[in-house]
Write a structure and sequence with these properties.
about 325 residues; alpha+beta; Rossmann fold; five-stranded antiparallel sheet; 13 strands; DUF4388 domain-containing protein
Length: about 325
């Protein structure tokens, strides 16, 4: 076992010696394995990837520990000639690092595709068009790189193109909390809510946001950026059914619960259950409009459109999410 060396230089040594076996590159508890056959790079696994995708991730770990174990040749998933990989690796890794630097706070700020006029032509690359479907809902850069099978360099280049042309943006970091309102505003809202006595069991006031799943995912991120918001421990369900996403103090000892109702018609029988004990229902788009109204009527509610409350509503702005909540409470 050794460490502190350049993985590319290390790999080159074993290639020149025409070794057969596996080179393990360790980064903490994570291990990537590069398999060689008579000095040829045949395969790589680790870091949630295989083949060249895993190889370049391993080679980016400057200073990682490594070890070699002799063994029989394995499966071959890397077809690019070994010398071509070794000669181009420094350039590929430098370009990947440059493209990554365009996206600050990659572990905190999700990426999101911006909705554009569908009548406009997509004057972008094939890779860019293919990537758009994966960023319709907020997603962190690492998760995006793991989800898409293409090489990381190709994904980063396509993402850079989408960001440069205004088709993808970075959302706010949950560390940058936005207050729901001033203390006076929240005190008045809490007083009004208590007077109307439309609280859940347990004393919380609940607002349900209804809409298509990908738009609700954007709103859920905005809710997580509100001051005092904490996610609920059970997390989002695997199926698109109504569920709470955050709880925060409204004022004093009165908590506010924010819940989502994805408007997927197959799950409409569950919607009335989500409305029971709800203070207000806000519709963020026109999905399943003919089904949400009857679900609300059973609880004496009438959905209000988001743009009726906030005419310039933009779900990517946390301040707009805060306005949406307070204006729904004030109705």
């Amino acid at each position: 076992m050794s460490g502190g060396r350049d993985p590319i230089a290390t790999l080159r040594e074993f290639v020149r010696a025409k070794k057969t076996g596996a080179l393990a590159i360790r980064d903490g508890k994570t291990v990537a394995e590069v398999r060689l056959s008579a000095g040829n790079i045949d395969d790589a696994t680790g870091f949630g990837a295989t083949g060249e995708k895993a190889l370049y991730r391993a080679l980016s770990l400057a200073g990682a520990a490594w070890s070699f174990e002799h063994g029989a040749p394995g499966a071959r998933r890397i077809r690019t000639p070994t010398e071509q990989i070794l000669s181009s690796a420094p350039r590929v890794l430098a370009e990947m690092e440059r493209l990554r630097s365009a996206f600050p706070d990659p572990h905190e700020r999700p990426l999101l595709a911006v909705e554009t006029d569908p009548a406009l032509p997509l004057a972008i690359s094939t890779s860019g068009r293919a990537l758009l479907v994966h960023v319709r809902a907020p997603i962190l850069l690492g998760a995006l790189l793991d989800r898409v099978a293409a090489p990381d360099l190709e994904i980063l280049a396509a993402l850079h193109e989408l960001e440069r042309t205004g088709r993808v943006i970075l959302l706010a970091s949950p560390k940058e909390r936005i207050p729901l309102g001033t203390d006076e505003e929240l005190s008045n809202l809490a007083r009004s809510v208590r007077q109307r006595r439309r609280l859940q069991v347990g004393g919380a006031v609940r607002i349900v946001f209804a809409g298509s799943p990908h738009r609700l995912a954007v709103l859920a991120h905005g809710a997580s950026c509100l001051e005092g918001a904490s996610p609920l421990p059970h997390g989002a369900p695997a199926v698109p059914m109504p569920h709470p996403v955050a709880r925060l103090p409204l004022h004093g000892d009165l908590p506010l619960e924010i819940a989502l109702c994805p408007l997927v018609p197959a799950y409409s029988p569950l919607w009335p259950m989500a409305m029971k004990g709800t203070f207000a229902v806000v519709r963020v788009d026109e999905a399943a409009e003919h089904l949400i109204d009857p679900a609300c009527e059973a609880s004496g509610l009438r959905p209000v459109d988001a743009r009726e409350l906030v005419p310039s509503y933009d779900p990517t702005r946390v301040a707009d999410v805060a306005k949406l909540v307070t204006r729904a409470l004030a109705r």
